[in-house]
Amino acid sequence: MTAKKRRRLYFAGAVLVASGLCAWLIAWALGNNKIFFYSPTEVTQLHVQPGVAFRVGGLVAEHSVAHGSGAEIRFVVTDKKVTVPVVYRGVLPALFREGQGVVATGALDAGGTFQATDIMAKHDEKYMPLEVVQALKKSGEWQKGGK
Amino acid sequence: MTGELGQLSLCFALALALVMANAGILGAQAANGTARRIANGAALGVTVFILLAFGALASAYLASDFSLRTVAENSTVSQPLVYKITAVWSNHEGSMLLWMLVMAFYTGAMVLLGRGGERITSAALGVMGLLAAAFLLFILFTSSPFMRLDPAPFEGNGLNPLLQDPGAAMHPPMLYFGYVGLSASFAYAAAALIVGGAESEGWARAARPFMLVAWMALTCGIALGSWWAYYTLGWGGFWFWDAVENASLMPWLIATALLHSALATETRGAFRAWTLLLAIAGFSLSLIGTFLVRSGVITSVHSFASDPTRGFFILVLIALAVGGALALFAWRAPSLQGGTAFEPVSRESALLLNNIFLIAACAAVFVGTLYPLALDAATGQKISVGPPYYAITFAPIFFALLALVPLGPRLAWRKGDLKDAIKPLYPSLGVAAVAIIAVLALASPRSLAGAGAFAMAGWLLASSVIEIRKRKGARVAAFAAAIAHAGLAVSLIGIAGTTVWRSEALVLVGPGETLTVGPYTLRFNGVTQVDGPNYRGSRASIDLMDGARVKAAMHPELRIFTAQGQDVSVTAIRTTGLDDLYLALGDDRGNGRWTLRAYVSPLAPLIWLGALVMALGGGLSLAGRLRARAPEPKAAPAVAMAAE
Hints:
- The complex is a heterodimer of chains A (about 150) and B (about 650).
- Chain A has about 150 residues and is of the alpha+beta class.
- Chain A has helices spanning about 5-35, 40-45, 130-140, and strands spanning about 35-40, 55-60, 65, 70-80, 85-90, 100-110, 115-120.
- Chain A folds into two domains: about 1-35; about 35-140, CATH 2.40.50.140.
- Chain A is built from three helices and seven strands.
- Chain A has a five-stranded mixed beta barrel with strand order 2-4-5-7-6.
- In chain A, a hairpin with a 5-residue loop joins β6 and β7 (about 115-120).
- Chain A is elongated, with a radius of gyration of 22 Å.
- Chain B is an alpha+beta fold and about 650 residues long.
- In chain B, β3 (about 515) and β4 (about 520-530) form a beta hairpin.
- Chain B has 20 helices and eleven strands.
- In chain B, α2 (about 35-60) packs antiparallel against α5 and α6 (about 120-140) packs across α7 (about 165-195).
- The two termini of chain B are about 25 Å apart.
- In chain B, the strands form two sheets. In chain B, strands 3, 4, 5, 6, 7 and 8 form a six-stranded antiparallel sheet that branches.
- Chain B has four domains: about 1-165, no CATH class; about 175-330 and about 340-410, no CATH class; about 410-500 and about 610-615, no CATH class; about 505-600, Sandwich (Tick-borne Encephalitis virus Glycoprotein, domain 1), CATH 2.60.98.
- The interface between A and B is large, with 41 and 44 residues.
């Protein structure tokens, strides 16, 4: 085997092994770290297990916001069909309001309450989070331009 | 008047760019000297007309000429001078013109430096001409910044408040210098494929200054973006693995791989085809990043363009540029000469490993960024991929790369000796061992990952010092590389410090209450309304206490901009250089009580300092190159041509 051929072989072997390893690592990591987005209806339909991280989006139900101890806050996310109770300990975005869109990241606890680690409201007064609009459209409760 | 002047300049620039494309590619033939002179002249013409167009737009902003739609939308009379200027590129139309301005700068530099042989230069100018023409068509047909409003309003809307900030203002020009610099290396790579044969071999040398400038600019641009996110978003983090950040990180990873691979191509003739592919990939990722950020696929502060024709145009441009370059590659690459053979232990192998790790890291980011978009498009299923994914893919791959960094430059070309390479680095291994023990013994909470990161940083830093001492008086390039590698270590220390040892307090406080975070005690005095010209502000007064004495007053603030309905957190950061005390005001919970986020981030400033050190290494390397070889006399006819 000539030196040139050996070099080619070495190059190809190294690239193959490395890219194989890398592809496996990426695929494996992706499989374990996908965070799904569900509307409240989907949360109940799919029977999402406690402890599985996901994002839930919808509207903050009217008159549902209650302050707990410390920085804790409780509210209910709804797509106007099904509701999911949420508890969150942290800073609320400035545009968080009852009747407005919200996306929360976290997981359900054993009691079926969504323990949120992160809350996103729309980032300005004109737009709703895209996922919320689509979740409302799915539940048939979307009114253009309305709350 | 200035508006029409700008529009006309763009039209002239387009016509000349088409001339430049044609003449440049014809000039790649050995005998066609006339075409080369025409290409050079046209290139300088394009440069001049783009400067004129940009100047026209900038002067409209300075004069607050609200008869131009973009000026009316992004500026006001009362806006400070500096933000009148940065408002030029704060919107889609203006930022595309900035892109052209940077391209004009690089085109001018290509003509004036004129390296790599006249056939290569000519073909590279031809490719730049094609790209310039495509972008000018894009601007003229979908995004002209010179559209008129009739009647002109008396006052404009003003710049997006989030962007009225020095970091946000300098971030786009930096990134564009990087992206467009990669288009120059792309042009040289395509030129090498067009010219072919022995004459094509100078391309890597000719493209190197452009790669270096692009890499430095990307490094600084990414660091600026990260710093800006740190002090404005109020979450205390410096990197969020957000699609927009990733869009700039991917070209950086490929540009880094390209810099290393091109070194082997330039000095040893190794990895010829591979380096060409990297140059193509680097620019492709710049375009993909621009598409992601600008097409409205992702909603963010960056996505000003929601016009679908623009996204479509960029997609077509990507398809043409990438497809064309790959087709050219498939057709011409087999004719490239293979390099000289090398042994498994050699500088070539080290550079090969460097490339594999960098590309794997880039692939991890690419999949994490694009998989959710692809899944949504294909199935409508919405997923997101968060930091944990990157922690188990990007982090270990990059860590493996860092471990090899000190060894690479110590191995000889073709056939190296691992023992000889490691022996002078024994002190570095010692430093790493001491770092592990010291961190495990002293830092609390105890963290193996943190100790590992410090050991790695010690290994890198000590090796850089050894390298610099040994290479005294040697080539500037080796010195520059050692500095850039030391920068990596500095950033790594900052990242480890903030990620592992950050203390954080999230509290609900009322007036007069105190809280502690890390070693600091803070007293909350309350919040007052401080309204600005266009926002409602809530300003907290918080004292940093030293026993009963007030050591410093801090004022985190929350501003809600009434016109845009946008909330902006003005964080209060007090840095000792070794740690940051970081306060962000949360939300009003009634009775004078507010939520407050407080972080103590040890070593945070080192994250961005390290990036500066890396860029400094790049700058040294560039200076060494420009000094080593005086400009060739080839530039002279080009200048004469332009004067005619």
